[in-house]
Amino acid sequence: xxxxxxxxxxxxxxxxxxxxxxxxxxxxxxxxxxxxxxxxxxxxxxxxxxxxxxxxxxxxxxxxxxxxxxxxxxxxxxxxxxxxxxxxxxxxxxxxxxxxxxxxxxxxxxxxxxxxxxxxxxxxxxxxxxxxxxxxxxxxxxxxxxxxxxxxxxxxxxxxxxxxxxxxxxxxxxxxxxxxxxxxxxxxxxxxxxxxxxxxxxxxxxxxxxxxxxxxxxxxxxxxxxxxxxxxxxxxxxxxxxxxxxxxxxxxxxxxxxxxxxxxxxxxxxxxxxxxxxxxxxxxxxxxxxxxxxxxxxxxxxxxxxxxxxxxxxxxxxxxxxxxxxxxxxxxxxxxxxxxxxxxxxxxxxxxxxxxxxxxxxxxxxxxxxxxxxxxxxxxxxxxxxxxxxxxxxxxxxxxxxxxxxxxxxxxxxxxxxxxxxxxxxxxxxxxxxxxxxxxxxxxxxxxxxxx
Length: 452
Ligand SMILES: [Zn+2]
What we know:
Layout: E1 3-7, E2 11-12, E3 27-31, E4 34-39, E5 51-54, E6 58-62, E7 64-66, H1 87-98, H2 103-119, E8 122-129, H3 139-150, E9 153-160, H4 179-193, E10 202-208, H5 216-229, E11 233-237, H6 241-251, H7 255-261, E12 269-273, H8 279-288, E13 291-294, H9 296-301, H10 309-314, E14 319-321, H11 334-349, H12 355-369, E15 386-390, H13 402-408, E16 416-419, E17 422-425, H14 435-451
Parallel strand pairs: 1-5, 2-6, 7-8, 8-9, 9-10, 11-12, 12-13, 13-14
Antiparallel strand pairs: 1-3, 3-4, 6-15, 15-16, 16-17
Helix pairs in contact: 2-3, 2-14, 4-5, 11-12
The structure holds zinc ion (ZN).
Keywords: Hydrolase, Metal-binding, Zinc
Pfam family, one: Amidohydro_1
GO molecular function: deaminase activity; hydrolase activity, acting on carbon-nitrogen (but not peptide) bonds, in cyclic amidines; metal ion binding
C-alpha cells in the first residue's frame, strides 16, 4: 500500500459543490487508486506518507472528462473541401472518405486522439464510433486496446448507421449495417468489455448516429437493448436546424418528440450538442434527467448555433463538455474546450458566467453525463484522477488567480495527469509513447485515406 501526498498546490479547483466541501489548499492524499484525505493549508496527513509531490508550482484540478468525440476523425482534420461547410454538406463530403477507414488507421487515429486528450488534462473520454465499412467489424475492440495501452478511462460507444442514401438518409449505403448485426455486436461488446462500479476503466454504451442516419427501428431497439444490458445511450440531437427540418419532414415531429417516441427520453441517455430546444423541451429534458454534451468549438466551426447551457442546467439537465470529432474542432485539447464553453456561454448570457462554472462542466458535469459518480470531483473516496498544471510559461506571466489563469490565459497542456493513482502524464509527456513515430505513421494513414 502506498500513500502519496500531493502537497500545497499553488491553486486548486476541486469541483466539490457540496455545502461542507473541505478546504483543499493543503492538497490531497492518494492511497493506491483513491483519494483518502483532503487537507487544509498547514494540516498534516493523518498517518505517515511514503511519498510527497511538491505541488507548489502547480494548479490542481480533477482530471477533465470529455463526453463527445469521434477519434477516427483525427485522420480528416482541416480537410480543404469541407473547411468552410455547414453540417450536412460537411457530412456528405466526408462520408465517402470515412468509408475507406481501415483497422490500422483507426488504431492510429484512436491513439492520437487519446494522447492529445491526456496531454490536455483529460483522464476520462467518451468516443462515438459509428463508421463500420467492410473489414472494420472490430472497430471497438481496437479502441479498447488503445485505451488500455494509454491508461485513461473511456466510455466507448458502439455507434451505428442504418438509414442510407437509398432510403432517404445522408450516409452512403456502403457504411450502413443491418440492424441485427448492430444489435448482436453491441451485446457482444457489452458482455466482453463493459466494467461497472467505482474505478471502471472501460465502459460500453450504445449509440445510433443521429435521426438522419438511423431508422426508427434502430433507435427503438437500441434503447431496449441498452435497458436490458443496463448501459448508457448516446446520439447526436438538435445540432442544426437542417436536422430539425429533416425530423419534421420524415417523422412529422420535432427532435425531442421523436426522442420520446422511440423510448430515449430517460436518464440513461446523453445527447451530443443539444442546441435547438425550446423552453418546453428544456423542461422535459430536465424532468427526464437526459444529459447533454456541449461542444462549443464544433458548434462555432460549423455555425450550428449556441446551446442554452445555463437554462438546461437550471432545468436539471446534466451538462458536460465535448471536443467533438476532429473534423469539426479540429483539436482534442480538452482544457481549451473549457475556455471555449465559457466564452460562448458568456456571449449568450453575459460576462457574469463564472470561470468555475465552466470548469465544473468539464469535470463534475461531464462525469454525471457519463453516469459516473467516482470521478470528476476531488473528494475523499473518489478515484485519484487529477491533473496538475504549471503556470511558468509566457502565456501565464503576470496572471494572479491561478485557477482563473488556467482558463483565461488559455492553458493547453497539463504537466502531469493521474488516473486511478497512476501517473499517465509526467513532465508534459506520456511515458513510453513515441509521439514522433505516431505522428509520422498517422499522417501517412491520413494522406492514404484522402487519396483513396
Ligand atoms: Zn459528434
